[in-house]
Design goal:
Oligomer: single chain
Bound molecules: NADP nicotinamide-adenine-dinucleotide phosphate
Number of helices: 10
Order of helices and strands: EHEHEHEHEHHEHHEHH
Radius of gyration: 17 Å
Length: about 250
């Protein structure tokens, strides 16, 4: 569907990929609802691009429901939902505090499913709408020391594939956008910097372009950068071969 004239709700819009996506959507003529926790940043972005800020902590019980309610109260409808908000965690899974596991699952998986569930019926009634999940290459191939994070993103992937089939012919599309490594605050926030030299981080604007392309072309899977589809496909078809190359590439 065209994003021009659409009402788009972007979670995690206060920074990184979400902020870039909201800006791109606004430039393309969409009306944008900007969700996040940081009211100051959301306000500044709203002033710059003309969106409507909504403060919501998606790690809290009931927050997705409140966000959906507030979004509908402000605009009356949501045509495009971009489930982008996410948090990382890197380290030895055996040492991961259970409270951090709960937070990752709540923000990265439960909130996107809940928001989609709440906004989907009206999209179906109108026969028009789109939901995008910002996943990760980690959810496609697995990454050592990011097991819980990879699990939440693999969960999103399975959700999208299933829901897309379920909604075939309804006019409502579902897409997974799979970023590789992106130059945002994600790594600083999780407390473990990105230390590899390859792949090189891409700017968040490239992922934003992938999100808009996914909606406008109704694409099931979009990778950013596009060559990221290669490791995902090799892993899917030949997991043993993938592991062999990955071990050599990373020296693990
Ligand atoms: P980022 O710059 O750290 O931005 C994360 C966004 O998520 C922020 O707007 C943050 O909002 C929001 N967020 C975090 N916790 C939240 C919570 N409890 N409630 C509501 N919002 C919350 O990271 P990013 O790189 O743009 O990440 C965006 C998405 O891309 C994530 O889903 C991430 O998993 C995925 N991704 C990133 C990379 C990468 O290399 N950067 C790679 C693959 C996938 P506040 O600051 O306002 O809380």
């Amino acid at each position: 569907m065209r994003v021009a004239g659409a009402v788009c709700l972007v979670t995690g819009a206060s920074a990184g990929i979400g902020a870039a996506t909201a800006a791109r959507l606004a430039r393309s003529g969409a009306r944008v609802l900007l969700a996040g926790r940081d009211a100051v940043r959301l306000g500044a972005l709203a002033d710059r691009i003309g969106g409507i800020p909504i403060v919501a902590d998606l790690g809290r019980d009931g927050a997705a429901g409140l966000l959906a309610e507030q979004a509908l109260a402000r605009t009356g409808r949501v045509d495009v939902l971009v489930n982008n908000a996410g948090v990382g965690w890197a380290g030895d899974f055996a040492a991961m505090p259970p409270v951090d596991i709960a937070q990752l699952v709540a923000v990265n998986l439960t909130a996107p499913l809940t928001l989609t569930r709440l906004l989907l019926p009206a999209m179906r009634e109108r026969g028009r709408g789109h939901a995008v999940m910002v996943s990760s290459i980690a959810g496609c191939v697995g990454v050592a020391r990011e097991a819980a994070y990879a699990a939440t993103k693999a969960g999103l992937n399975g959700f999208c594939d299933s829901l897309r089939d379920e909604l075939a012919g309804t006019g409502v599309g579902v897409s997974v956008v799979v970023p590789g490594v992106v130059d945002t605050e994600f790594f600083a926030r999780r407390g473990v910097p990105y230390q590899r030299t390859r792949p090189r981080p891409i700017p968040p604007e490239r992922v934003a372009a992938a999100v808009v392309a996914a909606v406008e072309r109704d694409r099931a899977w979009v990778y950013a950068p596009s060559w990221m589809r290669l490791p995902a496909r090799v892993h899917g078809a030949f997991p043993g071969v993938f592991r062999w190359f990955a071990a050599r590439a990373t020296g693990e």
